[in-house]
Model the fold of this input.
Amino acid sequence: MPGAEPYDSDLLTVLDPADGSLVGTLECAAPAEVGAAVEAAAKAALDWARTAPSERAACVAEAAARLAASADALAVLTTREMGKPPADARGGVDAGVATLRQYAELGPLHRGRSLQGGWDATDLMVPQPRGVVAAITPWNDPVAVPCGLIGAALVTGNTVVFKPSERSPHTGVELARAFAEVLPPGVLQVLVGDGRTGAALAADPLIDVVAHVGSTLTGRAIAQAAARTGAKAVLENGGNDPMIVDAGVDPVWAAEQAALGAFANAGQICTSIERIYVAEPVAADFLDALVRRAKALAAGSGVEPATELGPLVDERMRRSVHDQVSEAIVDGATLLAGGEVPDGPGTFYPATVLTDCTDAMTVMREETFGPVAPVRVVPDFDTALTAAMTGPYGLAAVVLTADMEHAQRAWRELQVGTVKVNAAFGGAPGGAAQPRGASGSGFGYGPELLDEMTTTKVVHLGTPRV
Done:
C-alpha cells in the first residue's frame, strides 16, 4: 500500500474520515520509550519461552475470547478511525478472533522431527522461539492482521513489541489491551507512533524478527535495517494485482467479480484488483456491467456510516488516488464512472472506471489503493497474460476463464504469491503464500507463519563414556 507522509508533530491526531470529527489524540513514543519497550520484551523472553506451549496457547485463546466480547466496540472504533463500513469492520474483528483461536490450536502442535542417527544417540531438529518480534501493522485491516502476527509469535514462545499504524492507533491500543490483560508483564508491549517510531523499532539491535505489513517503501527500509542488525524480516508489502477476463466468460458475472475486487473496502485491501485486462470479445458487455455496478454503489453521506463504499482513510490518500485518475485521463484514458472528488464532509471517493488505459500509466503501473478499476482491452488471453506479468510486484492475481488450459497456464506462469481462478477473493483455511519481488518475502499467515517465528536447532545427544 502507499506509504504515509512524514509527520512533523509528536502527537497523532486521528480524524473520522467520514465527517472529519476528532477520534482522538495520542502521543508518539519517544526514542527512549521504544528502547525501553524492546528491553522489557527481551527481559520477558526467556521465561515466556520456558512457558509450556499449552499455557501460552491458553493465554492466546483467552485474548481471543476477550476480543470477541468487545467485538462491537472494536468494530465501531475501526470504522471511526479508517472508514471501513460497519459490517466489514465487524468482519475484520471476527477474522482476528478466528485467527487467534487457530493459532491457539496450532501452537502446541508445532513440532520438529527426529533423525535416524546411530543406535547409541538421539538426533533431533527442534523449533525454538527467535526472541523478540516487532509487529508493525497497517491501518486497512487493523485487527485481523495484527492478530495473525501477534498470535503466531506468542504461541511459539516469542515476546512482541506491537506498533499499530499511525492512522489507526486507538484500535491498536484497544487490541493490545485485550492481550495485556492475560499475559505476563513484558510479553506484549505496544508503541504508538508514526514512521519514526517504526524505524526506531525495526533498527533496535534486540529485535529478532520484524514482521511488517504495509508499503513497499517502508518494507525496503525495514529489510535494510534487518540486514544491519541480523533480524529476520517477514514482509507483505505493496501489490499491483492484475485481473484477466478471458473470452468465453459471462461478462456480467466477470464485472461483479471485478467490482468486488476493485471496490471492496474502497479499494484499500492489500490484494485489491489494481488493473484489469479484458479480452475484446467480452469487453463491451463487461464494461457496461462494471459501470452500472460502480454507479450503483452507495457511498456514505458523512452523517450515517457508509454501508458499501466507505471513505478513504484520509485526505492524503484521496489526493493520491485522484492524482492517479486525473493523470490517466490527461494521458488518454476514458472516464466511464466516478473520477470526481465529491462535495461535502469526509474523504469519500466514488467507484471509478477507466478504459483505454495503457500499461505506461501510473494507475496501471503502481498500487492505487482506492476504488478505481482501470481497464485495458486486449485481443486475446496471451496478450493479457503477458501484460499481467509485467512490473516489479508479485502479491496476487485473479484470472476469470472458462478455459482449463488457460487456467493452468495462468497459475503456473504468473510470478505472484497467490493466484485466484474464477473468484476475486476466497480460499480454503490454512493457505499461506510467499509474496515475490517488491511485494515482500516470507509467509505472513497460515501455519507456515509459525515456522517464520521460530528457528530450528539440530541436537545430537550422544552416549557418555564413563
